[in-house]
Amino acid sequence: MTIKKTLLASVIGTAMTSAAFAPAALAENTLRMAYDADPVSLDIHEQLSGGILQLSHMTFDPLVRWNKDLEIEPRLATSWEQVDDTTLRMSLREGVEFHSGNAFTAQDVVWTIERLKRSPDFKAIFEPIESVTAVDEHTVEINTHQSYPLLLNLATYIFPMDSEFYSGEDSDGDAKDEIVKNGNSYASRNVSGTGPFEVTERQQGVRVAFERNDAYWDEESPGNVDKIVLKPIGENATRVAALLSGDVDFIAPVPPNDLERVRNDDNTQLVTMSGTRIILFHMNQERVEAFQDPRVRKAFAYAINQEGIADRLMKGFATPAAQMSPEGYAGHNSELAPRYDVEKAKELMAEAGYEDGFSISMMAPNNRYVNDAKIAQAVAAMLARINVEVDLKTLPKAQYWGEYDDRVADMMMIGWHADTEDTANFHEYLTACPDADSGAGQYNAGNYCNPEVDKLVSEANLELDQAKRAEMLQQMEQTLYDEAAFIPLHWQDLAWASASNVDIEPVVNVMNFPYLGDLVMDGDE
Amino acid sequence: MIAFLIKRLFHALLVMFVISVIAFAIQDNLGDPIQQMVGQSVPESEREALREELGLNDPFAVQYLRFAANAAQFDFGYSYIFNEPTTQVIMRHLPATLELVAATTFLIIALSVPIGVYSAIKPRAWLSRFFMGVSIVGISIPVFLTAIVLIQLFAIGVTWTPFPTDTGWGSWLNDLVSTEGGMPAYGRGDPIPVLGTWETNFASLEGLTYLVLPAISLASIMLPLFIRLIRAEMLEVLQSDYVKFARAKGISPRRIYFLHALKNTMLPVITVGGVQIGTLVAYTILTETVFQWPGMGLMFLDAIERSDIPLIVTYLMIVGLIFVITNTLVDLIYGLINPTVKLTGKPA
């Protein structure tokens, strides 16, 4: 028996090695990884998306970054101090070089922030910054219009770019620093950052190859990966198969249906973590009069079994939610818990005069979030128990968002991740009084509007005392919960998987930007 | 002949025109490309500016005429997701698809002809019955399922031990029902560049291993069809008078089967085959998705998912063109094999 097992293992072992890309490359540590998509561009200011931020952390370094516990950790900025209410002074790391060989200076930070303020995707979140000045070679001062407590959160999005490299004109006569959404700009094809990896080859939709930056400044980083080959594998089953068969060493995301399979395989390991993306339903008060009655909204909230959905439908791959802010966020209110109670829900409906229920329309995407269509079906079935008849329609994401913007259904699903990793962001986009001019409540498909909450959050956004601010934001979550402004469902979990010789656990995080520069892999296998 | 080709050229233009109008007409239902280009938190004003810049606010007729005028000069626009001319994107993805189709066609021809002929000559042999049975199964299983099963068996490997492992015969049987895996599960590996953007998987043994599983799954839908077609045609031909006469004349069975009968069997097979190769290009969408084969099918699905309208329109037009071309080739070959058929349809 043992002889046979060893024989089989060795056969599989040889098969795996021979299936590797190039045998010679194995002398170095080559990480072959597969995401569900490859970055849309090499210009990190072209789109504000997970894929671009993952790329940013590979080829660039931010001024500061989040560690695993959601605390700020210095990177290219070594220290900082609040000079006055609206000025933050940051000292920059010395002796850092870009891939091009240019030295990193304060001028690059100024240039980068100015470019961010021009980017259609980033300009909104960089709006609070009024100006940036280089005090000396390695010191910058960032001025905000008003006091702004989230400046360090924002600094995690500042990946200094090589201003010299991106200045001037390319061979077509276009400015190298141009940000073009639909076109072939210089910055979308060429990259020079300070990050742990340089891009050596890119074939969009097929592969991106990286090589370790020999002159990387962070010599304390344990990372020992010399080369990375990133391939997009959109099909879930294929991505898992590629890992199990040894064709790749690292995959993300791992589909919930395959979690057990990956966990049980001897040659692979799985890392999961509660995520920060809240999935929720809005109840449109403009379309349905009944939703203007807080009792009806609360009845809906009592009718939904968040724990059941997380447990059975998501197979434990979600954390049931009763608010928008996940744990670790300033506004996370630990007292709020899911309140499933059908009897109570029926009572509230009766109280509001709707014991015979009513019918509503519901819409959800079917390929955007994990199990989105199934979740919507489950919610519809739960609402049937309080006599609410639901006409459910699910759509592919490409079509869904247009319908969402037009608010075409009475209940609509949305998932939201706060770009600033902060509670206020949830409110600003999802539950603030909608205002087309300021852009507030852009995704508030419920039309919920409570000016007092709005006021509380804008005050919190000026409060530099973090403890006081947290209290205000927790108060906001409490009010939204009491008034059942929306139906929270869960925070979608995150999952990554790798071959057992690749130690991904220390480098993955809740933002889903694996710090691959610090990744350790054991190349002997 | 020349008249025939010119006529076909007009067919092709007509087909491409109709496809482009239809593709353009449905674009509003394909979703909002802007949504795919910007992050979720981007304000409406920025979206509107981008929409205006791309000319998406213009009326349908204006948008179509602009497209048609450019298309007449072989400029089919820029792909939203790849940021380069759509024709360039398609040319880069075309070789992968063509190689997959070529490998599949080879498999189909190499297997269907001998199997079809054999089961026609010996319809009652158990091997023939076996082939017929398997072909029913093959035609009924959807291609993505075949693909996933193949990956599980030959890329990941299955260890199955229904027999006692401590006996010699037991472990021998266990080895027989278990598979080792090791075949590449996805993609093209590192194809070798030959000409311009053309990279080939045919130039090395390692490259070929990447082709095996996708080609088998793609062949699994067409192969049964061809086996059955060849068998049916062959059976019919074997009943015909000239075969009986040839038998009576004492010509060797081998000569009858492979020279006289097979040639006449091939006529309908070529007609069906030509059309099916076009269909094969379409079926690659599924196969390429499961195996992440970086060809046109995968690219097309990506384009749909991200509402890349220029790329969708160009792809559909090119597929239409491929259909016209294969049909034209079929007609030409048909004329070569059966000289009694006149291409232009004029009386002989």
Describe the overall structure.
The complex is a heterodimer of chains A (525) and B (348). Chain A is 28% helix and 22% strand. Chain A is of the alpha+beta class. In chain A, the strands form four sheets. In chain A, strands 1, 8, 9, 10, 11, 12, 13, 14, 15, 16 and 17 form an eleven-stranded mixed sheet that branches. In chain A, helix 14 (451-460) packs antiparallel against helix 15. The two termini of chain A are 24 Å apart. Residues 1-26 of chain A have low confidence and may be disordered. Chain B is mainly alpha-helical and 348 residues long. Helix content of chain B is 71%, strand content 2%. Chain B has helices spanning 2-25, 33-37, 44-53, 60-72, 86-121, 126-140, 143-156, 168-177, 205-238, 241-249, 253-291, 296-305, 309-337; strands spanning 192-195, 198-200. Chain B has a two-stranded antiparallel ribbon with strand order 1-2. In chain B, strand 1 (192-195) and strand 2 form a beta hairpin. In chain B, helix 5 (86-121) crosses helix 9, helix 7 crosses helix 11 (253-291) and helix 12 runs antiparallel to helix 13 (309-337). Chain B is flat, with a radius of gyration of 25 Å. The model of chain B has no long low-confidence stretch (mean pLDDT 85).
Brief account:
With 525 residues, chain A is α+β, with helices and mostly antiparallel strands. In chain A, 28% of the residues lie in helices and 22% in strands. Chain A is built from 15 helices and 19 strands.
**N-C termini distance of chain A:** 24 Å
**Helical content of chain B (DSSP H or I, runs of 4+):** over 70%
Radius of gyration of chain B: 25 Å
This entry's quaternary arrangement is heterodimer
Fraction of residues of chain A in helices?
25-40%
- Kindly report the average pLDDT value of chain B: 85
Structural class of chain A, please? Answer: alpha+beta
